[in-house]
Design a protein that fits this description.
Blueprint: E1 3-8, H1 16-30, E2 38-44, H2 49-55, E3 60-64, H3 81-86, E4 89-94, H4 97-102, H5 107-119, E5 123-128, H6 132-137, H7 141-149, E6 162-165, H8 182-200, H9 202-205, E7 210-213, H10 221-226, E8 232-235, H11 242-253
Parallel strand pairs: 1-2, 1-8, 2-3, 3-4, 4-5, 5-6, 6-7, 7-8
Helix pairs in contact: 7-8
Bound molecules: 2-phosphoglycolic acid (PGA).
Length: 258
């Protein structure tokens, strides 16, 4: 199974010029590099999807940061999964904590989107993770999120979902104390695996990628993403610096094979 490094570019790259400079730099850094075990995915803001599609870099796959659950119609301001498909998106981030916080997205909303993405042949990168209060109180939010967000996802479809464990308290942190330890990430991975095995069986679970997100950087990708046994990373801030993103990919691609 290949690893995946997905960049979450969030609400950045504010102009066409900025986007083009970013893609040019990333393209130059990727030229001549070969990553045999890792897929790179750029999840762009919607307005840049056409520009990313035109970029045509074969080493990089495209993704979006959200979508609506209906295919078409009177849904002002929303973006259809069919549109994403037509703009070459193979992936979509769903259930990100920033959308849960600022747009009040519920597990039920996320579930509708997961089902719709899968129906349209787009792989959801489903984000789950506890916030600081839930961590302190020991609330088991991850299993609840998985249960609700994956409701109705069949055994035949689950391998197309990438589960991203993102402890909310570790997102965009400049403080090394606000990073999980390798063991904490390993425990979260085990918890997710246990849930998947109970729901889908051990054989199918082997095929489901589980990745880590939250302040991933070149200097911690080894301990947080590789040593913990994760299958890759969702990278926010550091993916805005192409050289950092490429370094993270190199670290994850070079991880010992199991
Ligand atoms: P970060 O963002 O790497 O800046 O913490 C990750 C994310 O929110 O997906």
């Amino acid at each position: 199974m290949k690893n995946i490094v997905a960049s979450n570019l969030k609400m950045n790259l504010l102009s066409i010029n900025e986007r083009e400079a970013y893609l040019k730099r990333l393209g130059a850094l990727l030229a001549g590099k070969k990553f045999t075990d890792t897929e790179i995915v750029l999840c762009a803001p919607f307005v840049h999807l056409e520009g990313f599609k035109k970029w045509k870099n074969k080493k990089v796959k495209r993704g979006a940061q959200n979508m609506f659950f209906e295919d078409k119609g009177s849904f002002t301001g929303e973006i259809s999964p069919v549109m994403l498909k037509n703009f070459d998106c193979e992936y979509v981030i769903l259930g990100h904590s920033e959308r849960r916080k600022y747009i009040q997205e519920s597990n039920q909303d996320v579930n509708l989107k997961v089902i719709s993405a899968l129906k349209n042949g787009i792989k959801p990168i489903l984000c789950v993770g506890e916030d600081a209060d839930q961590k302190r109180d020991g609330t088991d939010i991850v299993v609840e999120q998985l249960q609700d967000c994956l409701n109705g996802v069949s055994k035949g479809k689950i391998e197309n979902v990438i589960i991203c464990y993102e402890p909310v308290w570790a997102i965009s942190s400049n403080n090394p104390d606000h990073l999980p330890t390798t063991n904490e990430v390993m425990s979260a991975r085990l918890l997710i695996k246990k849930f998947l095995v109970a729901e889908y069986g051990a054989k199918i679970t082997e095929k489901v990628k589980i990745i880590y997100g939250g302040s991933v950087a070149p200097d911690n990708a080894g301990t947080i993403c590789v040593d913990s046994g994760m299958d890759g990373a969702l990278v926010g801030k550091e993916s805005l610096t192409p050289s950092s993103l490429v370094k993270i990919v190199e670290i994850i691609d070079g991880k010992p094979k199991t």
